[in-house]
Amino acid sequence: MSRQVVAAVCLGGAASLLLVTGAAARPVRRLRRLAPTPRQGRPNWWPDRIRLGAGVTAVAVAVIAGGWVGLLTGLLAGVAADRLLRRIEPRAVRERHLRETADLPLAADLLAAALRAGAPVDRSALAVAEALGGPLADRLGRVGRTLGLGGTATEAWAHLRPVSGAESLVTAAVRSSNSGAALAGALTRLADDLRAERSTAAEAAARRAGVLIVLPLGLCFLPAFILAGLVPVIVAVLGDVL
Whole-model pTM? Predict the structure, then answer.
């Protein structure tokens, strides 16, 4: 009788364990079914689009040239195409950089105004980020959050270093945190300097555009002038001489 009781207890415990395990496993299976299956990314050994484009260029040059010269020329053309294509900045990245550079003077003025109103640096950066919007606001938000979490000024303001023209702002902010100097005045002067530099760069670009516009016109008019003006005169003089 005792063996039967022990066997029954063991069977009952096993059945209970199976029921508990199955009940615990069902939610996991359901969650796995509900969770989206991650997309398989590109394998590490598979070349990216730039490398594929460079490879197609190398093959095309090799086929056109032919022979050992074609192989060598195709290899050089593929390497050159890969280097050139990787230097081309994507349009989205270029527009992001341009907008960050354009918003930098306004951000410096807003930071100076917030600091003059008595707000701490981290709160000022977060307030300007909320009011400004755009890619530069994301960087200022990271600056404010880093300062609020106890990060150093060097670590916080390093988020602005990739922005063109922000090196002076970063240097002034770090110097102010180390020495206690007023940052608002430095930011105002920096905003004025950035606007002056932008105005000078716009004038230089306008002058350069004028020069570049004249070059195609000269290349078009010079052959026409030679054919219509000089060639008939030369032909007439040679006809009289001969």
Answer: 0.57
